Each structure stands twice: as C-alpha cells, then as structure tokens.
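Lay summary. Proteins are chains of building blocks that fold into shapes, and those shapes determine what they do. In this project we predict the shape from the chain. Here is one chain we studied, written as its sequence of building blocks.
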Amino acid sequence: MTAGHASRNRAGDSPVARGGARNWPAVLDALEGDVFEAEATLARGRAEEIAAWGRRSTDWIPPSNLGPLPDDLRERAARLLQHQLAVAEALVERITQSQKQRDVAARMSYAPTRPVASFIDRAL
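And here is the predicted shape, written in a compact code that computers can read:
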C-alpha cells in the first residue's frame, strides 16, 4: 500500500534508500503512514477513494542498497506487516461490497418495468 511519499521508491531510487540500515526506520515510517492513510480512507467511507486504493498498480520494492532489516526492527516490521494485511483485507471487503451494491443498483435501474395492476369493471 504505497504511493506518493518521497520515501517510497521503485528499485532504490529514493533518498531514503541511501545510507543502508540507518534508513530502515524511515522506510518503516513511510509504510506505516500508508497504512494509516488507508485506514483513514476506510473510515471516511467514500467508495471512490476506497476503490482508488484497489487500483494502485505499483507495489513497493525495497531498495537493494538498504541492506537486510536490522534485528532490532524485525518485531516492528512484523507488526506492520500484520497491520498492512488487515487493512488490505478490509479494503478488499469494502471494494467487493461496493461493487455488489453497484451491480444490484444497475440491475434495478435496467429491470423491465413491472406491470401495473388494472381493474376492469364489467357490468353483469
């Protein structure tokens, strides 16, 4: 869930990527910011914004010059991963729910009109 922050990157092109392990905290901060942004989007409940998260096509790739994740950050990274997965699942559920609602609304708007009851008074 990334896009738009200066610290995010594609294959190491970010300033955060320079400097190896000392920049892992900044990378994790940026990723956490994305998760919080996604949660805020869910809380606002605007279908268009939520759908935009689902259309993001660029996955974050850790820069090659960051080096391995330092041991003292592994627990933080694991918690972040679980948080990301939970938010991603909530986004998928909300997008799916919204699509189902749009499908139902579309079927209702194009459904043939129902016959109107008519009464005929026949004299016997």
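What the prediction tells us: The helical segments are 24-44, 47-54, 74-110.
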